[in-house]
Amino acid sequence: MPKSVNCQVVSLSLPALRTVVEILQVVQVFGNPIKYVTRKLPPNPSPSLSNLPPSTQPIQSPTSISFIKKIQFAMPDFTIHDVLPLPQTPIKIPRIGFGVFQDPPNKPECVKSCLAALEAGYRHIDTAQYYDNEEAVGEAVRQSGLERSDVFVTTKIQKPQGGVEETLESLRASVDRIGLGWVDLFLIHMPVSGPEGRREMWKALEKLKDEGKTKSIGVSNFGVKHLEEMKGYSGTIPAVNQIELHPWLQQSEIVDYCFKEGIVVEAYTPLVRALKNDEPDLVSIAEAHSVTPAQVLVRWSLQRGFVPLPKSYNPERIRSNADVYDFELSDEEMEKLNGKALPGGEGAVCPYDVNCP
Ligand SMILES: NC(=O)c1ccc[n+]([C@@H]2O[C@H](COP(=O)([O-])OP(=O)(O)OC[C@H]3O[C@@H](n4cnc5c(N)ncnc54)[C@H](OP(=O)(O)O)[C@@H]3O)[C@@H](O)[C@H]2O)c1
């Protein structure tokens, strides 16, 4: 595939244009990141996930618009309503998610921050059994007044329970704690329980999906060998692999494998827990766009084709971390950030071992 393809498109009808953008997103999922588009699309008529795909939405304003688009080796223009299709499911995942890990857990603060996130436009919340705040996430979605189908909720199983049926009980208990009827994505949180434990959790997840209690299933912190191992006991592709990703830890081997296999890559700890906010190159890129270092990091993640999961309990930071749709990092800026990766996983903030047996 050529590194750069330029193409100009003029006077497309709005439905046709939305179809083009959707096709570009699908191609991206299969590992050929696409770029870019010089002018924004008219806003989606509705941010409702249940109304997607956009190509089927009613036309509101001009049926035909003139524009010039430049398609390079990157991504289509972004909005907070963007979604990606998940493999082997009819559902789509919002391109940005809201993380809620906090140590120690604080349920009232979690409810408040999720409400602030939903108010700011996030439609995707990432919790886990381990975070001890699944109930709080469900409570916030109920209090928000949004339709259940308009919010994408992920949780994760911490460990196997000594048998597929016992593990299935643990999964069902999570869905009950969240209390929204179903979850959209259920992940194996980490691969550390060994081949038998991983297989047991996956088999239980497949059953939970068959019961309709989760719409999709995936993994987190899985290395390539763990993903390959799954082919030995399941025909279900994990919809997602959620791994630590930011300029200082890029996990290229895992990312390349996931894109090749059609697995959506979620980026956790995308803000490097604010540890790099004074890094000179990051600061200078942020200043050049009059944005914060955190906004640059979220934007980097989106432009790399990941689904970033920034966390904050501060309403202003929650809002600004998702306010990343009116600037674009140039190729030079992306390259500068891409050059930050530290060797041997030294850039990792979290302790999870993607190479464990
Ligand atoms: N699957 C896994 O194993 C795994 C592991 C880790 C994380 N995750 C998921 O990924 C989510 C995000 O990762 P994370 O929580 O580790 O880290 P993160 O999102 O990279 O950083 C969160 C930290 O950055 C601060 N922060 C947020 N916005 C900021 C801003 N604009 N300016 C300055 N500081 C800012 C937050 O403080 P305030 O709250 O005070 O703003 C918090 O201390 C988690 O919540 C969780 O959902 C998954």
UniProtKB/TrEMBL annotation:
Gene Ontology MF terms: oxidoreductase activity
Family matches, as InterPro entries: AKR, Aldo/ket_reductase_CS, NAD(P)_OxRdtase_dom_sf, NADP_OxRdtase_dom
A Pfam family recorded for this sequence: Aldo_ket_red
Keywords carried by this UniProt record: Oxidoreductase
Top-level taxonomic group: Eukaryota
CDD domains from the UniProt entry: AKR_AKR1-5-like (cd19071)
Location of the NADP-dependent oxidoreductase domain: 98-339
Keyword Transcription: no
Recorded family membership: Belongs to the aldo/keto reductase family.
PANTHER family linked to this entry: 2,5-DIKETO-D-GLUCONIC ACID REDUCTASE, ALDO_KETO REDUCTASE FAMILY PROTEIN
UniProt name for this protein: NADP-dependent oxidoreductase domain-containing protein
Organism of origin: Tuber aestivum
